[in-house]
Specification:
Length: about 475
């Protein structure tokens, strides 16, 4: 396949991992090395001091697990016709799946871009594919792919795994491996969310955050089996693993609740987002043909985008440009822990009373209108309302409803297992909505009380539970 050399990495989660020579060639490009400077958990690192890991090591871990899983299936079921090329393509997809993340990862995609370019439907998966193409061309990697026998169809297959919803010019899905749909369930499983990307970040994030992880991905690899389900081959698992997989989804939910959506991390996100928005017109990166691009424009030019990492905040902090003075002050306050907004309280929406973004957009004005007479010092700038969604990965659906199982004594037939068959202790709902109230940190105690009271009245009007820590009518 290739006369290059593989390389062994010592990973804190998976131990010694050996990667294919072509993977090593990709790792040694500036485009991939850029991932060393993107924190895996963004601003969560400013709350959890151990969360200093980067997307670089996560990507190596996903590559390793992708190879392990596909090789285990290949060894167990040789009749599936999995080739060495298939294995390599799956490993490369795992390696490159996060190439396209921007500064502070999901903050850039979910907070910054929607505010500066509300018309765009950009996603980091698209940037991963664009940057993958850019890397191959700029670093002249096509001959390296050729050496390994990988052609255009194989490269298409790699990109399809990174973004399974990708379509061609005729609005039809590509199928780099039309006869092996189960291979698309390894790196980014859109069917039920059980994939090696999740396995690595659950193990890695728990380890670095200092949070116990009760899920063991090695069991999933051991029991993975491809079966025919309604005429399509899918990855299934043993029926006894159902409870273990519920543990996996609960761990994901718990990490979102305790870390990813931590109330202080979200408060810091507000500030970093504001700083980046104010700096957008003045922080620029050299793109194709030497053209300077704003951060919001760089997503359309991979030459410029490949230069953007978390270091943008230090470009601001170390700048003497008067145009960046506001952004610099905000970030200095972040570093000094002088947060603009402080978490005050929250309510949890009922199943039949879920709110949408349109409800939240008017919430501040509605809440202010409900303040008690005499609290005239409370205004729109004093509060911020945030909608936080917590789920098992498929919004209100139970992801396990999209997984099939086999029995020990009948390994060739796929059967479903309902939640009721597994346990009566499992959740009845799989989507939780928190409506959080933040107040200006420097606001008076009277303003905080007024905001809490007004929020309680607003919750009552919306038929929501009483806010945490306060009764509806409590001042």
């Amino acid at each position: 396949m290739d006369d290059g050399k593989s390389k062994v990495f010592n990973d804190p989660i998976h131990g010694l991992i050996e990667l294919h020579p072509l993977c090593v060639k990709i790792i040694d490009t500036p485009e991939f090395q850029r991932l060393r400077f993107l924190k895996q958990l963004g601003s969560t690192y400013l709350v959890y001091p151990g969360a200093s890991h980067n997307r670089f090591e996560h990507s190596l871990g996903v590559c390793h697990l992708a190879g392990r899983l596909v090789r285990a299936i290949k060894s167990r079921q040789p009749d599936l016709g999995i080739t060495d090329k298939d294995v390599l393509c799956v490993e490369i997809a795992g390696l490159c799946h996060d190439l396209g993340h921007g500064p502070f990862s999901h903050l850039f995609e979910g907070e910054f871009l929607p505010k500066v370019r509300p018309e765009t439907k950009w996603a980091h998966e698209k940037a991963s594919i664009d940057l993958f193409d850019h890397m191959i061309e700029k670093r002249n990697l096509k001959p390296e792919f050729d050496k390994c026998g990988l052609n255009e169809q194989d490269i298409r297959f790699i990109k399809e795994q990174i973004r399974p919803e990708i379509k061609d010019e005729n609005n039809e899905k590509f199928r780099g491996r039309p006869g092996k749909p189960f291979l698309y369930e390894i790196v980014a499983n859109k069917r039920n969310g059980i994939d090696v990307d999740k396995w690595d970040y659950l193990a890695r994030d728990c380890y670095m955050l200092g949070i116990r992880n009760n899920f063991d991905h090695n069991r999933c690899i051991h029991f993975a089996r491809v079966l025919n389900v309604c005429g399509e081959k899918q990855i299934c698992t043993r029926e006894k693993e159902a409870g273990h997989l519920y543990d996996m989804f609960y761990t994901r939910y718990m990490l979102h609740r305790r870390a990813y959506q931590h109330k202080t991390a979200c408060s810091i996100n507000f500030m970093i987002t504001d700083a980046l928005i104010k700096a957008n017109d003045y922080i620029k990166f050299t793109g194709t043909d030497g053209e300077e691009k704003k951060m919001s424009e760089a997503i359309d030019d991979m030459e410029a985008y490949s230069k953007m990492t978390d270091h943008v905040i230090f470009l601001i902090l170390n700048s003497n440009d008067k145009n960046l003075a506001e952004s610099k002050e905000i970030l200095n306050n972040v570093m000094s822990r002088k947060l603009t907004y402080k978490y005050t309280t929250h309510s949890v929406a009922k199943r039949d009373k879920m709110l949408g973004k349109e409800d939240i957009s008017d919430a501040v004005k509605e809440i202010i209108e409900k303040k008690k007479p005499g609290h005239q010092d409370l205004n729109d700038d004093d509060i911020k309302v945030q909608l936080v969604q917590l789920d098992y990965g498929k919004k209100s659906e139970n992801p396990m409803d999209h997984l099939m199982f086999y029995r020990k004594n009948d390994q060739d037939n796929a059967v479903p297992i309902t939640k009721e068959q597994e346990s009566s202790f499992l959740p009845k709902e799989f989507l939780e909505q928190q409506i959080r109230l933040y107040c200006k940190a420097n606001a008076s105690d009277a303003s905080h009380r007024a905001a809490r009271y007004a929020f309680g009245q607003w919750c009552r009007e919306k038929d929501l539970p009483a806010p945490m820590g306060a009764d509806f009518g409590d001042e």
